[in-house]
Design brief:
18 strands, about 20% strand, TIM Barrel, homotetramer, eight-stranded parallel beta barrel, 15 helices
């Protein structure tokens, strides 16, 4: 049934679809937006809004993690970002916003070359914790073994392990790689891990005991992974594949439901609705919040791949500012481009399509249609 | 036979087509354009021109409804627009045309926050009625129960119930939703209802007793439903699906013919011809008439979704002015972009393809070809 | 085997291909460009260059028809253009080149409203005839009955009947339409007729006794038939379909070979090569010659559909001037955009693909590849 | 299984894919980039970097051939370029970089009209040879018979025969064409020959005894072969087809492995990774090195097809300068557009996909996804 096409005599590949190649089709019923539930629960944590904000310095600082939590979402702090490398990152964030484009990548590389201070990991988590919200923070797989104790000791609620591609089976001749399965088993907190983009990779991540998997290659809206690495797995296909792995793993495991969290590539509320329509349980976004008045990036946006020392795969992009985080999540919107009232738009997409909760909405009919 | 494609392991969807992805193919015959009939009849009302002008304040006022009627078409007045909220909307229309883009959405939201005056509903209908033309006016499903008596009492000929998506089965826990079937049964006037975009949704609307169904999500040429909600059903596919529902419903009902009216997304005469080629009985357009010298919008164009208070899904767009309504309908055209002589172009498309009336022309051969 | 796709439940259509969606694939042989023959023969007339220049006032005047003939091609004079409406069109051609874009369509409509002078038909043909080259001239089907005697009397060699769509079966209630079959039978000269774009329409035209059929909807590079009428049959598919009709008609007629002449939509030498690869015997082009220093349009280009009085379907476009007709046909080119040395490029395409004459080259392998 | 589509009734063709239509899909494993091998060996020559720099005057001079060799790659000198036509090409290279666009093609044609000096062939090869690196130089098939002795005598290590299309079976009535098979048999050095783009053409080239075949039509990033000749075989399909020929020829020949070298159309590191993913053993690139500070073209780039005297099929393009050759190959990159650290990006694409050497990486999964 899969649309396998012959690229040449020696190579075939599936046709894969991006979110902007699909459209949601309303059913024969409609509902009131106010009666739609967009609540999401992972492990013991319930959120009124199924939205994680990505661990990127341009959007999540300790302060905005608190704001996002108070608004019903989950902001994830990057524990390898400026906040654990510097005592006072604010002047550096201001400097980044003032760089001209030509110099931005080089300066980001310099700033992120500063070593991580283990002591700051604990301090940042405490800062968020004091606000009484659910605390989530992220490490890359490469640094998880080194720093996870500091993270757990500081009292994180949800542990995020996030990289461009995270596999359950990293092969290395130099060092003992992170044994994800054992690591997750020994931790007391739920772990969300990714990115991954295929059925098989996701199934293996689910078998490590993760509470959730991130689908996609992360990165901000300025990411250039396709151009630099040639790696590209469009999100609509990736989400649907991983959702199928969730179903099969639930059967295999006797009922464990691992959450599928679309991560990256969603720049407007329409994309978010389509991610759920393809099977996501929640979404992780960055760029929509880079446009908030509270965003540490001051309207500029970049991800970890933008400051990679050797092979940067993203740029600092200027998105501008449109409103505060409350407005971006719940409106009212005064623009019509899908950048504000993300949750209001999601409710309306569900209502106009006839669905009353997110789990049902994963079954909504879609069409393939080029933009 | 349907082109169902696998988006991912957990999700499939049909390939759906937009009007600009198809082209009309002439048959082996040709005809004289002058001998082609484009007449259309719905219920007891016959129109020389199969064209409804959409209920949008930028195109239909009481005055232009009269002009359109005198020219052989049917202008539909929006009974939830400025003309039922204000005694004298003209200064407000002038103000809208003077707003800069950045402020337009917010100001539209403010202007349309003014309550509807029931008394004005009757008065506007009377103003049109006095001209002796067929009178059509529209309400959204949400307000139909509240205002329909005022509309009927004022003597509307054709009642239009129009929303982004109108279903025969609206589910609401708050209030008794409009029972379309009973409502239409009790009315004495023919009802046109929509938008809808699928076979099933259309079939259910046809079973309510509607005389016609609107295909599409309405909205002006500046609509952003795809970006904001993720909802998108390209028009060529939607029209062809609903035309199939018309045929099946005619069989099921023992011969009731429900008119299929393509609504939205047609910006030039080529699109209009293609809508008929896909199975439309008539078309409802907005933006082509927003460019008329008589248009209340003064060259600017917006739909109801542009002033939604919480989730606006369209913008006020500047289309400019190109000629009067008579020229736009019947030419002669002095530009070659499909914006003038809409009916002359439709006649010529039919003639060059060898068809002499609209019902036959629904069978014309088409090809799929990217623009 | 045809790629019929379902557009919606009530409508299907073939996927059709434009020339710029295909690419020529070299075979395993190569040849010397100098040893390739591009000669073409229709009826008793042999041409070293398989190229007709379209009957458009911007490219073919009596003077340039002579130039083109002397260079080995065939320029077709439009007998319904300025040269048969005015004694001295030169000042009008200069005026057209000086119009601003906004006024161009209207002024063209005015200039072409001048009646045709039958006397001038004969005179123009004589002017060309005196140069001793093959004379070709065109009328639309609507005016063929009225003027063909004047054309024949003046001694045309090849008679071209050309319109947007020409069918063998025009249906008219007003007047007796041109009976193509009888008309062609009675004439002594070979007739080329079109446009047509489908297998069936072409087969019927072949049965009229035509020596050649024009494939396409004619028109210059500024034509907007798709936007205005919705009619669109991409050229690669149209040529291949009509080439199949040629083969089937040859069988049906016991060996009559009707030439297939791609007409319109070829703007560079690559397009021309692809037209032959799809099955053309010759090509009719306009825009490449509008850029000649000798072109009457002075770098501007327009077709008959651009000055249609009611429904213009094309614009006057500014293409600029790049070289003389000899250079455009035979080079050497000093630009690399396919606008010069059309025949040199065709030879090289054939040679690099391993073919030595045009008839063989119709079998060259092609791929479908989006631009 | 091949996606043969019907273009029209008389013509079918395969759907062929460009590199930018595909994406690499990571497997379920990941690796450390440092443990990935990108080494490549052809005949007795081993390279740490699987990258040939194309014989184009804008990138390979004797000096840069040495630099590239010292960096682990293989620079191929064009023996029909400025270095064998002029004693001192440096002033001419400076002049080319100073031409305005409109005059560039004509001046290139003039400069390359200067005859080749056989004596200079030997001298240039000696200049490179003295540096102690592997020496590679190229001729076109047309001039190979005339000059190959001078090349061999001067001590070339790898002989490259390169043209737009090189076939094993060139048909010519004028002169005895190069008998590739006999020629290669008699030479003592390994020969790389191309371009070719199909399974059959490649198989025939492999049977001549070539050590490697070039896939593609060569040319710089400014090539216009598709526009000028209509010839186009997208690279992803071409590489995969030729890789299949390699496998079948290995079987047919009892084990001879002919290297597949993608040549042309790769402008960033993502394209290079995808070329390997489709089956390449090595890649030949030009434009990425035209941007080196050492490049003879001073940021301008052109290929042999740009100065063809009769039918130029490429332009001199201004790419600008971004860093030295070491940085372009091995980084670190300070831009995120795939133009620097080509080998670092390749390693990372392989590592993130779970592959440890290039031969394995040819099997990586890919998807088809429009850009």
């Amino acid at each position: 049934m899969a649309a396998e096409v012959e690229i040449g005599r020696g190579k075939s590949g599936r046709r894969a679809y991006a979110l902007d190649e699909i459209g949601i089709v309303p059913s024969r019923r409609t509902r009131d937006p106010e009666e739609v539930s967009v609540a999401w629960q992972i492990d013991a944590y319930r959120f009124e809004t199924p939205l994680l904000v990505a661990p990127m310095d341009s959007v999540v600082s300790p302060a905005t993690a608190i704001t996002i939590g108070q608004l019903g979402g989950l902001g994830v702090l990057d524990l390898e970002g400026l906040w654990t490398r510097y005592e006072s990152p604010e002047p550096l964030l201001a400097e980044i916003a003032s760089l001209d484009d030509a110099r931005a990548t080089l300066r980001l590389q310099q700033l992120y070359a500063e070593p991580i201070k283990e002591e700051l990991i604990g301090r940042r988590i405490h800062e968020i914790r004091e606000a009484g919200i659910t605390v989530a923070a992220s490490l890359t797989p490469q640094r998880t073994a080194k720093y996870y104790k500091a993270v757990i000791d500081a009292g994180v609620d949800i542990f995020v392990i996030r990289g461009t591609t995270v596999s359950a089976e990293h092969v290395s001749g130099r060092a003992e790689p992170l044994n994800l399965k054992q690591f997750i088993y020994e931790l007391d907190v739920p772990v969300i891990v990714g990115g991954c983009a295929t059925y098989t990779a996701a199934l293996h991540l689910m078998r490590t005991g993760a509470a959730g998997v991130l689908v996609g290659f992360g990165g901000g809206s300025g990411h250039t992974t396709r151009t630099v690495l040639g790696v590209a797995v469009p999100m609509a296909t990736a989400i649907a594949d991983v959702a199928a792995a969730r179903r099969d793993y639930m059967d295999e495991s006797g009922g464990r439901y691992v959450h599928v969290i679309a991560d990256g590539g969603m720049t407007n509320s329409g994309d978010i609705a389509k991610a759920f329509a393809c099977g996501s349980d929640a979404v992780m976004v960055g760029s929509p919040f880079a446009r908030a008045t509270e965003a540490p990036g001051r309207g500029y946006h970049w991800g970890a791949e933008a400051h990679h020392g050797e092979v940067p795969r993203g740029a600092r992009v200027d998105l501008g500012t449109i409103g505060n985080m409350d407005q971006i999540l719940y409106g009212p919107a005064h623009v019509a481009d899908g950048s504000m009232n993300l949750i209001g738009a999601l409710r309306r997409a569900m209502a106009t399509s006839g669905y009353s909760d997110l789990k049902e909405f994963q079954r909504v009919q879609v069409v393939v249609t080029p933009h």
